[in-house]
Design a protein that fits this description.
The structure holds two protein chains of two kinds.
Chain A lengths: L2 E4 L10 E7 L2 E8 L6 H5 L7 H6 L5
Chain B lengths: L11 H15 L4 E5 L2 E2 L8 E2 L2 E2 H10 L3 E5 H6 L12 E2 L1 H4 L5 E4 L6 H14 L12 H4 L3 H4 L3 H5 L10 H5 L17 H4 L8 H4 L11 H4 L27
Classes of the chains: A alpha+beta, B alpha/beta.
Chain lengths: 62, 246
């Protein structure tokens, strides 16, 4: 049975991939991947805590 | 505009087809607008679209464009992902694809007014605007924030905010001692402002973060600490300028 990948998912901000397994016309399994990693948690370590909001706000700048 | 993941109707393979068709039909004649930094560590696996890395896509798309416009500090200089310790080896477009014709429009966020102006400049004159050493258009980044700041007269009068919410803050005094980076940042925020000219950070009461400067996440932080560099040219210390009687 077909396994379908949709990448990129559009009309969202960011990067997303969806894969679905279709069995007899129904989705039997589904996987999603966020296909970007920036490591903001690592970047925040050791910084002035007053600056944290400026960094974390950029996780999604929409 | 033929391809933009956030706005376009197609998804998946159809979206990729739109990209490839747009390149094939306009090779060497299109403007590529790039948003976001490009991870290079571990062969660029930290950002993929349609199974290809951002690095591969940037090389293909920017390499065949007439010119590339890198919008936002991430695309221009690596931005937030490139802040220490830069876990993904993120770089700006020019470092990822050297040798291309590039306009950088940094800012976090970039101001859409300036992007529109670059495109209109190109359409009107058939040429890209004059740029500075960081590939930034001079008409956007030719002046320091400090030069056209509406709080500048308070700087000259040595009227400084000393504490958030103090009387100087209510009165709109200079935010330099609170960590404003406007004296080291080249951008047109005070004149074009944001949201159709509604306001901009310093006018709203917060210091400039210096977001149009390369590597501001490391070079302009801590954000609430006064710039140290001016010490060389006559530093201004809070104790030298105590709050004036109201």
């Amino acid at each position: 049975m077909p396994r379908i990948a949709i990448d990129p998912i559009t009309r969202i901000e960011g990067h997303l991939r969806i894969e679905v397994q279709v069995d007899e016309g129904r989705v039997s399994e589904a996987w999603n991947s966020s296909t970007s990693f920036r490591g903001i948690e690592l970047i925040l370590q050791g910084r002035d805590p007053r600056d944290a909001w400026v960094f974390t706000q950029r996780i999604c700048g929409v | 505009m033929d391809y933009h993941e956030t706005l376009m109707a197609p998804a998946g393979r159809q979206a990729e087809k739109s990209l490839h068709d747009a390149i094939a039909a306009n090779r060497g004649k299109y403007l590529a607008v790039v948003e976001g930094s490009i991870p290079t560590k571990d062969n660029g696996i930290y950002c993929t679209v349609g199974g290809r890395t951002a690095l591969e896509i940037a090389r293909e798309v920017c390499g065949q464009a007439l010119a590339t416009i890198a919008v936002g500090t991430c695309a221009a200089f690596g931005g937030l992902p490139a802040a220490r310790p830069n876990p993904t080896g993120a770089v700006g477009v020019l470092e990822a694809v050297p040798g291309i014709t590039l306009i950088n429009l940094p800012g976090c966020p970039m101001n859409g007014v300036n992007l529109a102006a670059v495109v209109v400049h190109f359409l009107t004159f058939g040429a890209l605007p004059v740029i500075d050493q960081f590939h930034r258009p001079l008409f956007v980044h030719g002046d320091r924030i400090h030069e056209k700041c509406e709080r500048r007269s308070h700087f000259e009068a040595q009227e400084f905010v000393m504490q958030w919410g103090d009387e100087g803050h209510w009165r709109g005094w200079c935010l330099y001692l609170m960590g404003c980076k406007g004296s080291e940042t080249w951008m047109n925020c005070p004149t074009v402002r944001w949201n159709d000219g509604t306001n901009w950070p310093v006018r709203a009461g917060h210091g400039c973060l210096g977001c149009a400067q390369p590597h501001f996440w490391d070079r302009m932080t801590p954000f609430y600490t006064k710039l140290g560099r001016l010490k060389r040219t006559g530093d201004i210390l809070p104790e030298e300028f105590p709050r004036r009687p109201q």
